UniProtKB/TrEMBL annotation:
CDD domains: vWFA. Residues 101-133 have a biased composition (Basic and acidic residues). Gene3D superfamilies: von Willebrand factor, type A domain. It comes from the Bacteria. InterPro entries: UCP010256 (IPR011195), Uncharacterised_CoxE (IPR008912), vWFA_dom_sf (IPR036465). This is VWA domain-containing protein. It comes from Tropicimonas aquimaris. It holds the Pfam family VWA_CoxE. Residues 97-133 are annotated as: Disordered.
Amino acid sequence: MTAARRPGEVDGRLVENIVHFTRALRKAGVKVGTAQVENAVCAVEAAGFTHRVDFYHTLRATLINRASDLEIYHQIFAMFWRDPDFLEHMIHMLSPSLRGQPEDTRPKAAERRASDALGDRPERPPPKKDRQEIEIKAHLSWSDTERLRAMDFEQMSASELAEATRAIRTLRLPVPPIRTRRQAPAPHGRHPDIHATLRHSLRRGGEIDRLSTTRPRLRPPDLVALCDISGSMSIYSRMLMHFLHALGQAQDGAWGRIHSFTFGTRLSNVTRALHHKDPDLALEAVGREAQDWRGGTRIGEALERFNKDWSRRVLGRGAVVLLISDGLERGDPDLLNQQAERLALSCRHLIWLNPLLRFDGFAPQAGGIRALLPHVDSFAACHSLDTLADLSSALTGAGHKTRLLAGLDS
């Protein structure tokens, strides 16, 4: 990797390492086919490389098809190609005496998944048949997952993320129905139904023997999700997309219409992409629709575009809005303040889900957070399975908002 290579100088050692690298990607959950491996070798042979970054982008262009796999690719590439003598170096690095990490050191996003893929750790034994099955009603309760429930998504390994994804598919977000202005027949309703009473009296020659009544009709509220897919929100965005997909595929009828949008540097409507029944196909379609995945963050401009183009279409029936973002705005805070106020006035309930609440010392110091906080109805975390299971409380309470609003004056 240190010496410059020209086209046509791909030796057998490098080809062998590229093959091992693609196997590591597959082990981490990245879908890489044989044709892609051949294309990667041909691309390196045709383009050559004089710097590490050239080799990085050549392999990425040929091996990665989904935006959700970029972070895994980045971590595995950094670990795999950091030393020319890869095999000897990895044996030393992953020896039992050096493999453990101090408790106070947290790995970066996707680093544990890369470590699992490269470490050749033995596969976990299959679960016993008498193991307690997953059962989720009002809260999560299943065996041997106490640690997983409270674990940050960013710190999970590949196997732990897969297990968390399966658990997310069973989560539900109960919500009380909305009373509409339309009336429905009810034997003990409060409002008399004159037309029904007269129609019934015709059967008795015009004699009224009973008074028909009605009550307000109930319907499930709509849900609109605005999900930040910038670099700092990458892993959380993927897990929340699984959560939204699960809500859309649920048959309990708790929600009416569900609309999903992503934003980074631009707003994308991914509602149709999440209609796929298969979650993998749905997330792959989301990756195609949202071209700004892992980019910058311009929350104010995204909310402005949503308010102008989509607000009247999807918020007209009193929808609940989930704003999923860490609030780290790179644009104008004044614009964000104006558009957040407009959004709050257009929806029934505005819930802000922020993974930064996982930190005990979190305070509203960033300009974007200070601009958004006064306009939301509830403020909750979304960094673990436990926080997602408790989102129903955010529909009825302010969550952490009251405590953080006091910090705005300090």
